[in-house]
User: Which sequence fits this backbone?
């Protein structure tokens, strides 16, 4: 009897311990059923990638060319003496501004002043001789009428009068020459401008027409800018003008950039272009004239000039970040079509205009070119288009149904 009770208690204990296992198995079955039901539902739709585009529009563009150049003075005058003598005084400040005709040097002119006095005395003597000859000729005019003098004597008196008149002219010319030489003893500036350092000092001996200048005067307002341009660029420009791709812009002002890249406050104008090409460099020279009232530009400075080559009336410009190059060097752009899909478009670009490329072919007005989001798209993909910060089109990607296998 005790054995039967013990056996019954053991069975009851085993059944009680099995209850949690059955509950856990039922919970697992319910969880598995729920998971299977959820996996059978279709996956959520993925949104289309968002890209920023720019719609191309035709516009008139002035095509420019930036050329390097050097400044050169508008006028240059090397001051040299026309007479010999000792420098008595220097009458200017080195590095200062001088006016045309302003005295620069004074030479010792005592000898030249003596020559002037001598020439003046010779003139006075000639005038006295002329007066005497004139009186004699007048008396002989009356005497020859009454045969008081011979005709020969009368003719000699008239000839003496003419000779005295000629001597007056010679004396006047000698006086003018002596005065001119004396005037050259005071050396003046032939032009107005800024004068450099003096090569002589007070007491130095200078000679007429010597090779070494006493000083140099340069006119810096206006000032020249000498540029060089490739002859091949000129030929291409002429071809574009002849084909009608460009129109002539006329006298477009020339912008000047200083050595540090800052713009010069005054614009210039093209003075002339050389007609001869340098065979060594294949380029020709151009000269620009620009105002320089404050003398900011000095001779020999390196500058850059932006010249207008021509105008394109129906130009297409595309931002530089929208153009990509493949390993072969070909240029392409991503364009969003009317259906919202991306396509790759081969593009030919010419030059840069500011931050844009000038399109030669491949893109037309109205094309929507992708400028941002290029890394997350590929050809044929549907995209959501944003232009100027406003979403203008959105095409959702098609949902893909996923069927769970039980």
Assistant:
């Amino acid at each position: 009897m005790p054995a039967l009770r013990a056996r019954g208690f053991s069975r009851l204990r085993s059944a009680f311990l099995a209850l949690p296992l059955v509950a856990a198995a039922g919970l697992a079955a319910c969880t598995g059923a729920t998971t299977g039901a959820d996996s059978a539902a279709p996956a959520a739709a993925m949104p289309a990638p968002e890209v920023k585009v720019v719609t191309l529009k035709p516009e008139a563009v002035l095509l420019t060319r930036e050329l390097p150049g050097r400044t050169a003075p508008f006028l240059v005058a090397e001051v040299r003496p026309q007479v010999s003598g000792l420098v008595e005084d220097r009458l200017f400040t080195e590095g200062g501004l001088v006016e045309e005709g302003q005295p620069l040097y004074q030479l010792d002119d005592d000898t030249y002043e003596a020559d002037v006095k001598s020439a003046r005395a010779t003139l006075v003597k000639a005038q006295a001789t002329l007066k005497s000859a004139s009186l004699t000729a007048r008396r002989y005019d009356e005497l020859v009428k009454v045969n008081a003098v011979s005709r020969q004597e009368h003719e000699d008196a008239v000839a003496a009068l003419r000779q005295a008149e000629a001597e007056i002219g010679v004396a006047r010319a000698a006086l003018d020459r002596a005065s001119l030489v004396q005037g050259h003893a005071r050396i003046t500036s032939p032009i107005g401008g800024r004068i450099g350092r003096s090569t002589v000092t007070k007491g130095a001996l200078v000679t007429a027409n010597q090779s070494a200048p006493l000083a140099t005067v340069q006119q810096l307002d206006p000032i020249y800018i000498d540029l060089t341009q490739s002859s091949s660029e000129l030929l291409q420009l002429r071809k574009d003008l002849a084909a009608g791709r460009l129109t002539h812009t006329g006298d477009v002002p020339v912008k000047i950039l200083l050595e540090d890249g800052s713009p010069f406050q005054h614009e210039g104008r093209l003075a002339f272009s050389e007609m001869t090409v340098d065979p060594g460099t294949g380029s020709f020279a151009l000269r620009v004239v620009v105002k320089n009232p404050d003398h900011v530009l000095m001779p020999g400075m390196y500058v850059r000039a932006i010249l207008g080559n021509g105008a394109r009336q129906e130009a297409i410009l595309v931002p530089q970040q929208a153009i990509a190059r493949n390993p072969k060097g070909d240029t392409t752009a991503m364009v969003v079509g009317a259906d919202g899909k991306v396509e790759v478009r081969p593009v030919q670009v010419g030059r840069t205009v500011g931050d844009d490329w000038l399109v030669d072919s491949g893109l037309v007005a109205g094309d929507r070119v992708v400028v941002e989001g290029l890394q997350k798209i590929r050809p044929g993909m549907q995209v959501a288009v944003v232009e100027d910060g406003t979403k203008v089109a959105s095409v959702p990607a098609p949902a893909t149904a996923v069927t769970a296998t039980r």
Remarks:
- The first strand starts at residue 50 and ends at 55.
- Residues 111-172 form a domain with the Helix Hairpins fold (CATH 1.10.287.470).
